Structure formats: structure tokens, C-alpha cells
Amino acid sequence: MLIAEVSDKYDLSQDTLRYYERIGLIPRVNRNKSGLRDYTEEDCKWVEFIKCMRGAGLPVETLIEYVKLFQLGDATVAARKELLIGQRDQLLTRMEEMKRVLERLDDKIARYEQTIGAKEKALMAHDS
Amino acid sequence: MLIAEVSDKYDLSQDTLRYYERIGLIPRVNRNKSGLRDYTEEDCKWVEFIKCMRGAGLPVETLIEYVKLFQLGDATVAARKELLIGQRDQLLTRMEEMKRVLERLDDKIARYEQTIGAKEKALMAHDS
DNA sequence: AGTTGACTTGGAGTTAACTCCAGAGCGTAC
DNA sequence: GTACGCTCTGGAGTTAACTCCAAGTCAACT
After folding, report:
1. Taking a C-beta distance cutoff of 8 angstroms, is the pair A26, A71 a contact?
2. Does B1 contact chain A (CB < 8 Å)?
3. A95/B98 Cβ within 8 A
4. pLDDT at position B128
5. What topology does CATH give the domain A1-71?
6. Cβ B77–A113 below 8 Å, yes or no?
7. Which residues form a coiled coil (chains A, B) (predicted)?
8. pLDDT (tens digit, 9 = 90+) per residue, A37-68?
9. Roughly how many angstroms between the first and final C-alpha of chain B, as a whole number?
10. Closest CA to B53 of A14, A7, A100, A17
């Protein structure tokens, strides 16, 4: 699978895919005889995983660390688990904060609705 | 209220407070006779609101727009409401994505737990 | 043989959101 | 009256995460 197809499939620019590989955010992709990247299924799974984690805001640095640990093999299983737990907890914290803000926004919107409603009523009264 | 106190109260650096004011993320704060910022209750409410919204990831640009609309007065009530609705929807979308990622992380962590459990079991067997 | 189009690399540029700094003003403490 | 501490302004620097670019390679057409 060439880079163009992967780019289309996961909606990541070719530049981003090359960048991710360069910084070790995904393991190195093999090149074919012409020197072009030839993504395996495995590579694609990494791309998908990283895209997913980045989408939730996990930092690039942390994900690089995860990939590094992964490449070190079975000895790092515990460390990888701990890393994921740390990220999971932070994610949860952020979600909780966002939930509070969501409620606050809903409140504020409801109040704006009231304001507008009141104004319309005033106009109606003026009309009649 | 001087900037130091506001900085302490909301855990925002003085530089950040000045920066927010400079770019219009909070309305201009009055200066006392010596030229120092003297935050009113109103100013503090803005600081708190902006800090809260930024904490949930609402973009600075959008919040500046909101403040601008606010300063234009009652004529912009509807526009402000629409702006908030837009941000609310985006926030919700991001939260949903994060929720999916959270579940995926939990899954992955559970699988790591199994892996580690299995390894321990193997060690036990070897011991006996 | 030459042009086209996709891809390569290394490196520079961009964007958002701060963060830091130099030089100066003001008010109190010695 | 000068040293100290707090704050001021305008502008430069930083960080994270891309994004863009120039120069070159390679295979496939024409």
C-alpha cells in the first residue's frame, strides 16, 4: 500500500504520515525496490491507532514513548500498561472538565433563549 | 484588585492575564492613578469565564469574537447565542470521540492486565 | 529520449497560545 | 534620596504539532 492510499484511507496528509514516521510516532515503514513506502497491514494498524489517540488529544511525545516501549518487546508490557493508565486517567479528567463546561454552556444558551423570548414578546405587545 | 491577586486567585500567570487583555480575550481593565491594572468584580468574572472555557479547549479566536459581540451590546444577543451553540456542539463531538478512545484504552489496559496475569501464572507453575 | 506524475529526503516555515524579557514608572521603607 | 518591590509596555522567544518546499529519483507513457 503506497502512501497516497493510506493518506486517503485515514484522512491524514502524506506530510503528516511521513512526519509521524520521522519522529517515531509510528514504526519505520519498509520501502519497495523504488524506495517508496510500502505500508503493510501492521503499519496501517499503527496509523489508525495513532490517529485515534491523537484525535483524543494524547500528546505526540507520550505516544512516541509508547511506540518505543512496544518495540522493546515483552519486557515493557508493564510499563506500557502504566503509560496507558496514566493517559486514560488524564483523558477522564479532561472529559469531566469538559462536561462541566458543556453544562455551563447549555445554561448560558438557555438564558440567551429566554432573553430573546422576552424581546419577542415585547415586540408582540407593541404590535397589538 | 491588583494583577497579583487575580493571578493567584485564578491560577493564571500575570503574563497570561496581560496577554488575554491585549488580544481582547477579556475586556480592557481600568488602571488606577499609578497606571496599574485594578480588576473589578466584573473583570474577575470575565477572567473566570475565559479560564473555564479555555480549559475545555474553546479556541482563543472564538472567545475573542464572543467578547467583541458582548461589547456591542443587546443587538448581538442572537449572534452570541449562535456562537455558543456552535461551540457547545463541537465540544460535544470532541467528548464523544474522547469517550470512544477512553473505552478503547480501557480495553487495551484490560488486555495488558491479562497478559501480565498469564505471565505471573507461568512463573508460578515454574516455581512449583 | 523526453515529459509526466507520484514519491523521496532534509530542512525551513507556520499556527496557536502562551511565556519571557528589557527598560521604565511609581510608591513605600530605610 | 535612594533602594526595593510591584507593575507597566512593546516586542521577542518558545513549544507543540504539523505543513510546505526544493531538489532529486524512479517508473510509465508518447
Report:
1. no
2. no
3. yes
4. 57
5. Multidrug-efflux Transporter Regulator; Chain: A; Domain 2 (1.10.1660)
6. no
7. 88-122
8. 999 999 999 999 999 999 999 999 999 999 99
9. 71
10. A100
